[in-house]
Amino acid sequence: MLVNELARPALLLNLPMEGGGTFAGEVGEPAYATLRRLLRSPPHLAVAGRTVYVCENPNLMAIAADRLGRRCAPLVCADGMPAAAQRTLLARLVECGAELAYHGDFDWPGLRIATFIMRSFNARPWRFGAEDYKAYVPGSSAQTLSGTPTLSPWDPVLALAMSGRGLAIPEEAVAATLVLDLQR
Predict the structure, then answer these.
(1) 153-158, long-range: CB within 8 Å, 24+ apart, which pairs?
(2) Which terminal residue of the chain has fewer beta carbons within 10 Å of its beta carbon, N or C?
(3) Above pLDDT 90, what percent of the chain?
(4) Contact criterion met (CB below 8 Å) for 88 and 35
C-alpha cells in the first residue's frame, strides 16, 4: 500500500531543470513537490556533477530564500526525518547525478537523521563535523543536550564533542555560515 501521495510534500529551492527553469516553482522562491507529482512526473533535473545542499529545517530554507533568493544554490529540506516525498526527491537527485551535502541540528535526533541521509543517499557532511560544532559560540539559541546519545559515523569525534560539551545547537543558529556556502 502506498502512503498518502499528498502528505508532507518536499520543500525545495532553485532545483534546475533540463531545458531551463526550476522544478516546482519560480527561481528564488521555496516550493513544495508532492509525492504524487514526484512519482507520476519524475523531474528531469539538471544537477549532474553539481552539489545540492540538504538542510534539516524549513527555517533555514526561509532564511536562504530571504537572503539569497535567485542566488541560492540548489537546496532541499529534509524536514526532520525524511518522509516519502523527501526520500523520493533525494533519490531522484542522486539518479540525476547530484552530489548531496547535508547539514542538520547538532542534537541526537539530528545525528540520527544525518546518519540516515548520508547512508541512504551517499550525502557528505556540510559543515557538520566536530570542528564545526566546537566553533559555535553559545548564544541564546543553544539548549541543553538531552535524549539518547547516538553515534556520528562520518565524524566519530562529533558525538564525543557533543557529549562533552552538553549543548544542542539548532541549525538556524549557524545559518549565517551556511548561507555563505549557498551563495552562487
Answers:
(1) 153/115, 153/118, 153/119, 154/114, 154/115, 154/118, 154/124, 154/125, 154/128, 154/129, 155/125, 155/128, 155/129, 155/130, 157/129, 157/130, 158/111, 158/128, 158/129, 158/130, 158/133
(2) N
(3) 87
(4) yes
* β-bridge mates for residue 12, sequence order: 31, 76
The count of other CB atoms within 10 Å of the CB of residue 146 is 10
pLDDT tens digits, residue range 9-67?
A: 999 999 999 998 899 878 999 999 999 999 999 999 999 999 999 999 999 999 999 99
Pseudo-torsion of CA 46, 51, 54, 58, nearest 10°? -70
**pLDDT at res. 174:** 95
Domains of the chain, CATH where assigned = 10-182 (3.40.1360.10)
pTM more than 0.90: yes
Q: What are phi and psi of 33, to 5 degrees?
A: -125, 125
CB 81 within 8 A of CB 19: no
Distance CA 55, CA 80 (A): 9
DSSP run (H or E) holding 32: strand 31-33
Helices (H) and strands (E) in the chain, counts: 7, 8
CA atoms 47, 52, 54, 59: torsion sign: negative
